[in-house]
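User: Structure tokens for this complex, please. No commentary.
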Amino acid sequence: MSAVHVAGVSKIFNEGTPKQVDALVDVNLTVEPGEFVSLIGPSGCGKSTLLRLIANLLEPTTGSVAVNGKTAAQSRLDQDYGMAFQQAGLFDWRSVAKNIELPLELKGWDKDKRAARAKEMLELVKLPEFADLMPWQLSGGMQQRIAIARALAAHPPLLLMDEPFGALDEMTREYMQGELLRICAETKTTVVFVTHSIPEAVYLSNRVVVMSPRPGRITEVINVNLGANRGEDTRAADNFFAGITAVREALRGTHADHANAGAIRGVEDR
Amino acid sequence: MKPMLRRAAYRTGMFFVSVALVAVLWELYKVVGPEKGGKLFGAPILPRSNDTAMPHVWEMLSRYAEPEQRSPNSNLIWFVVLKGAFYSFRLALVGFILGSTIGVALAALMSRFKTMERGLLPYLVVSQTVPLIALAPLVVSWGGKVQIFGFTWPRWLSASVLGAFLAFFPIAVGTLRGLKSAPAASLELMESYAASWKQTLFKLKFPAAIPFMVPAFKLGASGAVIGVVVAEISTGLKGGIGRLIIEYARQATADPAKVFTAVFGAAGLGLAMAGLVALADVLLMRNRPKETTT
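Assistant:
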């Protein structure tokens, strides 16, 4: 059973109106359990749309999305996945621990069980002493780690991330990438990860899905297995750079298309 | 804690400074202003500065320590005004609670159903353009006449209803804005948890609305006070500060300082209500980021 199975999916916004946008056309993607898959591509390539289709925050125009062998709608109801966004999006009025407990609270867990799980998650993200602080007292990187703890609190088998480290500085970002890999290895979580950054996608992923815009589609899938024990040395290794080059070339192809298409369409639009 | 205390002390200090400044301006006008009023650019807008129209500040203050009537066993004015203000305060509090309940419920309803907002909001705006004075006798006439399941409508409740009438509007509008202020990403997060409408309302939208609700409730609190005092004045309801204001105003020629004691009592009443909301503000916002709402 695949963790995610996207078959023949298209998503068209404002269909039949002058503002029609073909966000995704005929997308097929399968993610196996335990895999780390990144979606990368220029703005407007539909990578965030694809993530939201998997999360059932959007309905596909055509095609089907299955998560854990269930429909996307059912797996959302069952909280089979956790989600993290570019903004940590912690609730200002809740302490760090209470933020992590939020999904459990909504599921109707009792208080002791919630508190125990929050403690466990805080240890997982290595911030156990911050339980009673308020989110705004934490740095951006810490807030994002709490957001990951919240996303994983219900122990979902799948983690969906939409540019979670996009707002962090480079040093924090690299540290967070390492932490994410460690957490996913410990919890055996499958990840679908949207990013703008080529090194980030290559460093983290088993597979990098390269997408292109107008209409949004998958142009290439690149295998980059850097092995289980990635660390600082990996970032200087030859196969890391080989991966980056491969993804960059795939993206360059889509970029050229994008530029031309953009020029022509830009005229048409007016 | 210390900077908070210092800020509170600073604010209190500034309040007294500004009150003193108004008193100084008042006395200054009495010195330079025309005794029998005056025209400015042909319009008779300068108020009379004689002691009947504008008694000295110290006369107003010393009046508090004198008896209300000439009769020997009359209470001192400060006691009568305080009693009247407290009576009106209770009515205003009932009106405020009534108005907040209705206002918040309306806001929740309007945030839930777009059609409700479109259909209801214009009526709410129109409701505030109806002059309260016109409405007051009508609502007050319910007193003693309306009976619901053995509950007889007391006369004082009419004053509270008029207070609620002025209070609910800013609260409804402010709360509605607050409920809509929840960030899209947080709403998406709640959706990803398959949270129900009720869960989203109470765990996200209301907490996110608090910074918008506090100033709205401050407006609502002063609205409740105005509604109650106007109701008392226009219907002559006994016991409250509004009644004292009309009674004392009638005696203004003989005893000009007296009416001001009651007017200040009404102002104090408004401050007490605002203080109540400010206290709630401090309690609710103590754990929030320090972009203070004022």
